[in-house]
Amino acid sequence: MRVGLHMPLKGGFSHNVNRAVGLGCRSLQIFIGSPKAWHLAPPNEAELEQRRRLLAEKSIYPLVIHSAYLVNLSSANEIFLRKSCELMQETMKRAALIGAPYVVMHAGSHGGRGFDAGMKLFISMLKQELKKWPPQVRLLLENTAGGGSSLGGKFAPLGQILKELGPNAPVGICLDTAHAWAAGYDLSSAEGTKKSMDELFAAVGFERVMAIHANNIGSPRGAHRDRHVHLREGLIPPEAFSTLFSYPWPEELPVILESPEIGSHWDEINLTDLRSYAAAGVS
Questions:
Q1: pTM here?
Q2: Is the pLDDT of residue 283 over 70?
């Protein structure tokens, strides 16, 4: 597995890449613009090529792009839906330019119209929009903390989406451990983690899990509150992470930390803890 961080926007791309390499990162995740804005700055293709060369030089791959939080392809608001489609199309194009094979997007929210209606719209929009995106970039649907009008809190709906899109669709899954806990999955022990992973693999297929957000959480299980904390301070114990890493994941699988105080001394602490959990899992 290729362990890495979600890279901060502040400080400059080159500085942050070199810092990540110094911390032993082998993969990275980034936003390509503000996660709370509808528009990206115009692309500077020369700068994107420089960034692409730097990543290759430092052997950082795969680069993972996280879409903006505003994106919702099941929005009941037609303006938001149109903006979501436009922003995702530009995000996918930018990912192709920088050489990122994956773009992570949260599963949508039905906005109060009902789960079935939300799922129908979400799947139809994906079928429509996939045709417009660069073929070399794969969409990864991330499970969410669930609750409210969320479509992606449970694994079964993610499996339903993949089934509707078909086996050849360039779509996979990004597993977020903190979100799974918040949605009610029992990651409090090795046994609970195995049971949760059995449910995940039965729903989506082992081979469709193409990235992991290895996050810990401070809110109660099933509370639907997404509150990330440092790995050693959360409610998910080390044995749960070690059990997760004991599966025969592909060598190229990106495992990304999205911890608090990103860019601080905590990055090294969290990476050290994660590596120790992973080592225990494969020993």
A1: 0.97
A2: no
